[in-house]
Amino acid sequence: MKRQLYTADHEAFRATVRTFLDKEVLPHYPQWEKDGIVAREAWLAAGRQGLLGLAVDEEYGGGGNQDFRYGAVLAEEFTRAGAPGLAIGLHNDIIGPYLTSLGTEEQKRRWLPGFCSGEIVTAIAMTEPGAGSDLQGIRTTAEDHGDHWVLNGSKTFISNGILADLVIVVARTTPEGGAHGLSLLVVERGAEGFERGRNLDKIGQKAQDTAELFFKDVRVPKENLLGELNGAFLHLMTNLAQERLAIAVAGIAGAEHLLEITTRYVKEREAFGRPLARLQHIRFEIAEMATECAVTRTFVDRCIEEHTDPEGAGLDAVHASMAKWWATELQKRVADRCLQLHGGYGYMSEFPVARAYTDGRIQTIYGGTTEIMKEIIGRSLLG
User: Fold this and answer.
1) SS (H, E, C) 69-87
2) Which secondary structure element, helix H or strand E, spans residue 373, and what is its range?
3) Strand 148-159 relative to strand 210-221: parallel, antiparallel, unpaired?
4) H-type helices in 66-138, by residue range?
5) Is the pTM of this model over 0.85?
6) 33 belongs to the catalytic site
7) pLDDT tens digits along 60-81
8) Options 243, 256, 285, 306, the catalytic residue
């Protein structure tokens, strides 16, 4: 069935993204994977192409377009290209809304132009060695010292951790407040006491720098408080629906792409004197995956429509959780089945199916694990 989600403008934007990938990303990607980090020039190139800050007001250098479908196009094309290392989705769809919706006028003028040009790469630091999805377990503290905060603690698994010039840190500002005693503090590159640890060695997404961050008596100016004091929990919950929808978009795009390349492969690859595609088991496998992808695509597209409806309230947390866990678990299943259908070749890193298998495995974990998504959905139904 023909997708009804995108207009001609969205498809023109898709063509621009593909040209950018072909010119600025794919020729360099093998080297970035070896280096464990994307070259900063790629961020600047993305800024010049207008791919950063799509939803940021034009007065700050952005695209001035609130339509999430453009972000969805970016997610689809980067996923299909097998290039998750340049984390534009994290920058635009996850961190951008914090700066645009919570930032003061002074903060917006200070940070957003660089955000849109690629001169300021961003990260959000929430996860700690002892606290992941449970915000109440966060131990990083920020003490009020009059005209500044003193930040102490550590974070781990932080995407863009090495490259980031601006890090939104979730810290405890009221010891007895539990999850409601947390605030968002912006730490900028060069702050004394702010140190970056290892660029972590992951099984996939090798080009994406993921780091440990350490804060020892870091003085954070009071004007770097983002949003309300002790308001981080509400701020985080407000933006999670879009984050999870963006992950779901990448999930179904990844599954569809794996199905496409595997369908081509089984038509060409022969066993017992005939193409694999002639075997009933192979046809059943392809049929099952194609049906699962079609059903999931319909639901995810409907979620995008809900999220972008100017007359609506945006996608709610429950449906965002449904989309996230279903699409990413489907991506994981499809990756495993497609690798199996490639046989020994599927295990070779030079084959796209192998890289997609390892790159996509994180999808069911970050942004809230599958188990957390089910808990959110279950609570909404059962209390």
Assistant:
1) HHHHHHHHHHHHCCCCCCC
2) helix 370-382
3) antiparallel
4) 68-80, 88-89, 96-102, 105-117
5) yes
6) no
7) 999 999 999 999 999 999 999 9
8) 243
